[in-house]
Specification:
Elements: E1 6-9, H1 19-34, E2 38-43, H2 55-65, E3 75-76, H3 81-93, E4 97-100, H4 104-110, E5 138-141, E6 147-152, E7 156-161, H5 162-165, E8 169-172, H6 180-190, E9 195-199, H7 206-216, E10 222-226, H8 251-265
Parallel strand pairs: 1-2, 2-3, 9-10
Antiparallel strand pairs: 4-5, 5-8, 6-7
The chain binds glutamic acid.
Amino acid sequence: MPFPYCGRFAPSPTGPLHFGSLIAALGSCLDARQQGGAWLLRMEDVDTSRNVPGAADDILRTLAAFGFEWDGPVLYQSQRLAAYGAALEQLKQAGLAYGCACSRKEIADSATHAAIDGGLAYPGTCRKGLPDGRAARAWRLRVDNGEIAFIDRLQGRVVQHLEDDVGDFVLRRADGLFAYQLAVVVDDAWQGITDVVRGADLLASTPRQIALQRSLGYSEPVYAHLPVAANPAGEKLSKQTLAQALRVDQASAELVAALRFLGQAVPGE
Ligand code: GLU
C-alpha cells in the first residue's frame, strides 16, 4: 500500500550542506516520520552550470553521518530530462508554454516593475508570438492574474497574482537547461510527494509551482515553509553568504542546535 504521506528533501549539489540545509532535512524528515510517512531524497542537479563536482556524494555521506535514513533510491534530476521535456511538450500542446526571444537586456529595458522575489517581472513581450525574424531562446509558462492562494501549515495563507508578481516564467532556459520550477513540479508529482517541508526562502516560488501543477493536471501537495536560519549579520545562511559546511565530527552538536532552532521556530500544531 502506498504511504498516505510522502515527503522529501531535495538538496542542490552546489556545495556542502550547511546549517540551513540541516533544518530543511530535519524538518521534512521528522514531519514525515511523525506522520508514519515515507521520506525521499532527491538530488536537484538539473542546473549543471551550478553543480560542484563531488558535492552530491558529499551531501549523501553527510546525511548518512548525521543519521538520516531515506526511503528508496536517490532520484537524480540529471536523469530526468526526458520527463521534463515531456511535460514541456504537454504545456506547448495545450498552448500554455510559448517560445521567448528576449535577451536579458531586452527584458531589463522593457520591464515595468520588479518581480516578487527579485529580478524583473517579465512584461509579456513574446506572448503573442515571436517578433519577426527572431528565434525562441527560452520557453515560458503563460500565467494570468487570477489569484493563486494556498494555506501554508506554518506561514498561513499565501496569495500571489502571477502575472503582476512574476510574469510568464521560464520553464526552459536560453542555455537549454530546464528550470528549477518545472523540474521540481514534475518530480514532486512523479515521486508522489504529498507534503513539501522546506525553507521559507522558497515560499515565493510556491504559487508558480501550484500554477504549473494545475496546468499539468497534477495534484497539489500540502506545503510547510520553515523559518530560515540566519547568520549573526541577519543574512540567510546560503552558499552566497558563505555559510559554513556542516561539521560531521560535531554531528550531535549540530543536530541539537537544529532541533532547538526548530523547537523555537515552529509552533506546536
Ligand atoms: N533544491 C532546492 C534547494 O536546494 C530545494 C528545492 C525544494 O525543496 O523544493 O534550495
